[in-house]
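Open question from group meeting: does this chain pack into something compact, or does most of it stay loose? Before anyone orders reagents, we agreed to write out a predicted structure and look at it together. Recording both the input and the output here so the notebook holds the full record.
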Amino acid sequence: MSTRFKTFLSSGHSPTLFAAFLYFTFSCCIWVLNGAMAPFIGETFQLTPAQKGLMLSIPIIAGALMRFPLGILAQYIGRKNATLVEMGLIAVAMLFGFFMVHSFNDLLAMGVLLGIAGASFGVALSLGSGSFPPQNKGLAMGLVGAGNVGTALSVLVAPPLAQWLGWQAVYGVAAVAILVPMVVMMVFAQEPPDVDSHASLREHVACLFEKDGWAFSLIYGITFGGFIGLITFLPSYYYDQFGVSKVQAGQLTMLAAFMGAAVRVMGGWISDRWGGVNTLTVVLLVAAVTLALIGFSAGSLAVTTLLLIVCFAALGAGNGALFQLVPLRWPTTTAVAGSMIGEIGALGGGVVPNAMGLSKQYFGTYLWGFVLFSVLALVMLGVMRFMQIRWTRTWAEKGGRARTTHTAPVVDRGRALRRGIGG
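Structure tokens returned:
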């Protein structure tokens, strides 16, 4: 196994892979800060369940909407340069949080600024995997995507810091911490060669007008949207539903978040061998079942936590599986396609805290929020199984594995351009 991993690392530029992982880890950590500190913030401003849901959804939605513009920027100034620009903006945003948040409206504005960190996903994965061959991109993307562990670190570290220094001071700590991945990125990362420098903007955005792009985005809305939405919501859920302390709520959330981040690597690795479609089929089934069961197990802390760990393992594997398919479908515009899918898919995460907050406020229980997301997972499973019939006839092997030759997506893109829907 160690020999295979060394062979994998030698097939691409491993320092860039590490720099992209570190950048994404810090970005994820900062992106969910408001969720990690929600019990403290809610107590300070005396928020209703619906207000908490709104506060928690804004960073997710803002981060989703910023992903595609960052992907476009990366196509023109390079992915490495785009990450440095973004991290500089994150530092400024954290200083705003430290000095300027004094009301609920300020808090909502801070949520928008936290979205800057959430924009990192597509560029991070494309940067880290860009120098690796197609048969290894799933694992490379899985390793970078394991930077989702930053969400676990956030819910583990932020509550004790908030209890010690005050929750607003945590923004100041984050402003200093972001300097670490900036230095690593500047020193170790290289711009990968996998970009068609002659492609026009019209060709780059063609995936926006293809059914495959929207199918991937909606599936990602369940896997990553569910992952990030639940992480931001769970500290409040544990604190309100089970009466644990604010720090314990973060620790319990960390168990599920860490599982989701760790299994993402396995999801990419399994998909390289078994196929992304096969892996996603299992993922969506497990997610649907566990989400429904979580809603009905609100009386037991232990059962809820075990179900959440299984659910997050499935969602994490699903994130890796889906992004094993992206470079197969859009080999020369992976950054833009990945950012577009990440943008639309991450919007699904904004549904989770809002649905939970509204369910609690108007029905007195969080059950119907969990049931809604379970039903959506089953719907997307049906959509994927229908569309994979064409996928495996054109650009992927049976089950969603990589082909030795990859030409069909270019034909599809050209057809879209000829129809005049690419620009």
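Observations to bring back to the group:
Confidence is low (pLDDT under 50) at residues 406-423.
The chain is about 80% helix and 0% strand.
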